[in-house]
Design brief:
With 246 residues, the chain is α+β, with helices and mostly antiparallel strands. Helices cover 46% and strands 15% of the residues.
Length: 246
């Protein structure tokens, strides 16, 4: 989902949200998203993507995304939930018909199972780092490898893991070196590299320089600033806790 997150629930999904019950009291419905609330460093929740040519049917996905990587959209690290993972029935993905009572009840059961696996552990800073280190290959398919390493690097920085942060930054930059060979070459000579990738390289180098100069507090402050900008772009200020420390 790109741009600002709606302040109100999607009108077609509103009846579904109302059926969730007390088990989802710690979530906030925003547009086609059901977000864990309150949010600290990592936003997470469920997404309901419209099925093609059928506005009543929605693909169910679960995701987490660090707010301290500058973003103007929600993509994050996640996957579509399959019935096999949640209900031990089949490997097909869950596609809920919001007008089908039985289908809604089954989907809510699926979501309860996924919620227990993902939240709140993967939206805490330590839990998010452990999740990334574990390297779920299925989840990685939904994200760029360099972004995975960037998230690891900044999370390690916030946790005070200096050496790990530098190693993860090197891993992220190596992804580009393997593809483009020379990161200091003019932009035009890097082939199909995109603007967001150029910005990612600049961010990684900037944080690495701060860490190498033993300016960990400045690096953390920079991540705080990036998080504030992301929160503002997503318009989720009211869901984010006020921070006084990393």
């Amino acid at each position: 989902m790109s741009g600002q997150i709606p302040q109100k629930p999607n009108s077609r999904l509103r009846p579904f949200y109302l059926n969730l019950g007390d088990g989802f009291s710690g979530f906030e419905a925003r547009g086609t998203l059901l977000l864990v609330s309150p949010i600290d460093r990592v936003v997470g929740g469920f997404a309901f993507a419209p099925a093609q040519n059928d506005s009543k049917r929605r693909w169910l996905s679960v995701f987490v995304q660090p707010l301290f990587i500058p973003q103007g959209f929600l993509a994050g690290f996640g996957k579509r939930i399959s019935k096999r993972q949640a209900l031990q029935e089949s490997a097909s993905s869950v596609c809920v018909n919001v007008s089908d009572r039985i289908g809604v009840e089954e989907t809510i059961d699926v979501m309860h199972t996924a919620k227990c696996e993902w939240f709140p552990q993967r939206t805490s800073l330590h839990g998010f780092y452990d999740f990334l280190v574990a390297g779920d290959e299925e989840v990685q398919l939904f994200s760029d490898r360099s972004t995975w390493c960037e998230a690891l690097a900044y999370t390690a920085t916030l946790l005070g893991k200096r050496d790990a942060a530098l190693a993860h930054i090197d891993d992220a930059l190596m992804e580009y070196i393997l593809r483009y060979h020379d990161l200091d070459a003019p932009h035009s000579s890097l082939g199909s590299i995109r603007d967001w990738q150029v910005e990612q390289i600049r961010r990684l180098r900037f944080i690495r320089e701060l860490i190498e100069k033993s300016k960990m507090l400045t690096a953390r402050s920079t991540l705080d600033q990036w998080q504030k900008a992301t929160v503002n772009k997503l318009t989720i200020e009211d869901l984010v806790t006020t921070r006084s420390s990393p």
